[in-house]
Amino acid sequence: MSDVEATLTPEQAAADYETLYTVMAKRMSARRLKPDPVPDEIIGKVLEAGRWAMSGANAQPWEFIVVKAPARKQALADAYRDSNMEFCFWMEQMRDYDLRHPNFQVAGSTPQEQWEHMIEGSAVGWAKAPALIVVLGDGRRQWATVAGAHTFGRHASHLTDGLANCCTHMHLAIAALGLGSQWVTIHIQEPFKRILKVPDLLDVFLIISIGYPDMLRKPGTRRELSEFVHTEEYDMSKYMQNAEVADYIRRLRGKTRFRYEEIEPARS
Ligand SMILES: Cc1cc2nc3c(=O)[nH]c(=O)nc-3n(C[C@H](O)[C@H](O)[C@H](O)COP(=O)(O)O)c2cc1C
Asked: I need a surface site. Which of 4, 20, 135, 192 has the fewest CB within 10 A?
């Protein structure tokens, strides 16, 4: 690759950046996908993109399971609703309504009513995607990296950093191919391991849904560079006090809630 880089003209490099930037900026979480099948060739390209991700010491701690069978997707959706969603729902009850994750800001005068309202909806929309890529992590591959990486809390993060990089590559490839995807975090992995027959030593890190988007593209929300880029040293005028961070999240919710309402419009 270095030969290729060396021969790039400034114009070619600018064009490469423009293409990459366009893909990065146009990618968005597509939480409603059409059921139309995605050709295997496309899925192959996405997997290939994941393969080239950076990882600590090039340990490549990932494995992928491609799931298309409707019964298995339904089993994953049921597990998600009964374990992950329920767990997250009750955790979100611990904080002010406005600060809750938008997906958990649901109508109802009691927590039970809110939960019932939640599961009535189609919150597990990703399971209707024609294909899912389940990303597994193999912690043993971290043995490849320096032993120092297993100290000071880094023991888990080298694994998850590598897996996250791999998933980002795949999400970008999906966007580049004109499709949509959702990043479906797995908080409680055991039910998924049982459904997918994953060996004990491996983790279920993420589910990526792939399909043709069934929603309109809307502008993304990102902080301005001027808010978080510092020159030479940390500029304390940009530092947020705790109360300001809480206020920031409240304002952020106001800007991003519609993205979740798009999947389940009758929320509140
Ligand atoms: C670590 C991480 C966890 C995420 N978890 C979820 C998730 O569980 N469900 C979901 O729909 N989106 C999830 N997302 C997607 C983010 O909500 C999304 O990327 C963010 O709101 C920006 O919106 P955009 O992807 O449309 O640009 C996650 C993204 C990351 C990187």
From this structure: 4
Q: What is the second-level CATH architecture of the domain 30-218?
A: 3-Layer(aba) Sandwich (3.40)
Q: List all residues whose CB is within 6 A of at least one atom of ligand 1.
A: 28-29, 31, 182-185, 220, 256
Residue ranges per domain, the chain? 30-218
Ligand 1: atom nearest CA of 220 is: 27
* CA 191–ligand 1 middle distance (angstroms): 22
Phi first, then psi: give them for residue 6, nearest 5 degrees.
-65, -30
Enter the pTM of the model. 0.92
Nearest CA to 186 out of 132, 257, 110, 108 is that of 132
Query: Which backbone phi and psi does 211 adopt, to 5 degrees?
Result: 180, 180
> Beta-strand (E) ranges in 30-150?
62-67, 131-138
Blockwise average pLDDT, block size 10, the chain, 268 residues: 72 96 95 95 98 96 98 96 93 91 90 89 83 96 84 76 97 97 96 98 97 87 96 98 94 79 45
